[in-house]
Design a protein that fits this description.
The chain is of the alpha+beta class. Helices cover 36% and strands 20% of the residues. It contains 14 helices and 15 strands. Strand 9, helix 6 and strand 10 form a beta-alpha-beta unit. The chain starts with 5 loop residues before the first strand and ends in a 9-residue tail after the last helix.
Length: 415
């Protein structure tokens, strides 16, 4: 039986490379970072050019952490431009595979199932990877790294742990590499799908590599980590049954919105931000035709003071009533907040229930709820047609509000 062949294609320093190319500069000899330094020294740098990386500058840091170098070019993020270039890259991928065999994992990373096409092109996986890599560079000026594997997991791990180090920026892992390469990767956080908290929990169990996971009975992994434990055990043996054609339809158990603020906010200013962020979150809840029963609020104080809190509460029943949900969030805020400068916050709605009807409480005004629901749906329709800033609360004209600015951006960054 023919083995599957999966490509995991990643664009090197995508945002920074796009900015260099648009300026007619070589990403490999230009000191450029993507960041809006007008927002302050604490602004997050979204990307650094490959050339800056050779000086040890990490991919993610804040402006004040950059080396003091007058040659560094600051490029404001332009998300619409990056999406435009990403779509051109996807068009190239679709010259090689049918859309069902392409999974766009992020704006700068995609998976391709090339198994059905190798005989058509009469090429080895390495040769086809080289061809795609060359086309991307010739047509877009961008460089890519390609991991190749017999499944999605092996392709991704080959990309992250070998391809980026190889001269040709390509690595091909098969089941024969599981023992010699995969199981020896350390630390565990270098493995796709293993975060820092999972790594700490594994370390407490005396597990420091995928080889250790492989030697741990699968039943113990499942008992400790649930479904994730079973997946980790399979991955430790190079097994991944994921199918690109299934398109990774995720059952979202919660929806979240958050932001890092551009200045310190006082506790008196936060209720406005909570309300307008909840407005955005409620649009998503209604679009998914869902109700929520759990609300969460997280606050982080200014770096000067540190700390913060993350708390949640349960609603009496499933609801999509913004007033009920806002009241619960405000209760959490008032109960746990300290009178310190606030620099970041996030809201989350969990325990989601998809439904086409609403079960009112015994003493609830059904007609009032129906009028509110029609009003919210009307507002949603206006925003969908004319933009998020077509209609807004009067509070959003206050100094503390930043909704109008946020809605003019893509992913929190300039278009």
């Amino acid at each position: 039986m023919e083995n599957n062949v999966i490509f995991c294609i990643d664009f090197k320093s995508f945002y920074a490379s796009c900015e260099c190319i648009d300026r007619g500069l070589n990403p490999h000899s230009t000191k450029l970072v993507v960041a809006d330094k007008e927002r302050g020294q604490g602004t997050i740098v979204l990307a650094v050019s490959p050339y800056l990386k050779t000086f040890g500058v990490p991919s993610r840091l804040r402006v004040f952490e950059l080396p003091k170098d007058e040659e560094i070019i600051f490029a404001k993020p332009r998300m619409s431009r990056y999406l435009e270039i990403s779509s051109k890259a996807i068009s190239i991928f679709l010259d090689y595979v049918y859309k069902d065999d392409l999974h766009v994992y992020s704006v700068d990373e995609s998976f391709l199932n090339i198994t059905p096409y190798l005989h058509l092109y009469n090429k080895t996986p390495i040769d086809l990877a080289e061809e795609i890599k060359t086309r991307i560079h010739q047509e877009l000026g961008l460089d890519v790294t390609i991991g190749i594997g017999e499944n999605l997991f092996l392709a991704k791990v080959a990309l992250d742990n070998e391809a980026k180090k190889n001269t040709n920026q390509i690595a091909y892992w098969t089941k024969d590499d599981v023992v010699t390469k995969l199981q020896n990767i350390r630390p565990l956080s270098k493995i796709w799908s293993i975060g820092s908290q999972t790594e700490k929990k594994l370390n407490k169990m005396g597990i420091y590599s995928l080889k250790d996971i492989s030697n741990t009975p699968k039943e113990i992994m499942i008992k400790t980590f649930g479904i994730l434990g079973g997946e980790l055990h399979d991955h430790s043996n190079g097994i991944d049954t994921s199918n690109i054609r299934e398109k990774y339809i995720v059952d979202n158990h919660s929806i979240t919105v958050g932001q890092v603020l551009f200045r310190d906010y006082s506790i008196n200013e936060l209720p406005i931000l909570i309300k307008e962020m909840l407005d955005d979150l409620m649009i998503r809840l209604r679009q998914e035709k869902s109700l929520t029963k759990k609300v969460s609020l997280s606050i982080r104080y200014s770096k000067e003071f540190g700390g913060g809190f993350s708390r949640q509460t349960q609603l009496i029943t499933y609801s999509d009533d913004i007033d009920v949900i806002y009241s619960s969030l405000l209760s959490l805020f008032n109960k746990y907040v300290e009178d310190l400068p606030i620099r970041a916050l996030s809201l989350s709605l969990g325990k989601l229930l998809k439904t086409n009807y609403y079960q009112p409480l015994l003493l609830e005004d059904i007609h009032l709820q129906e009028r509110k629901r029609r009003l919210m749906n009307t507002l949603d329709s206006i925003k969908k047609r004319f933009g998020d800033n077509a209609i807004f609360r009067c509070d959003q004209l206050k100094e503390a509000s930043n909704a109008l600015e946020r809605h003019s951006r893509i992913g929190g960054h300039a278009r």
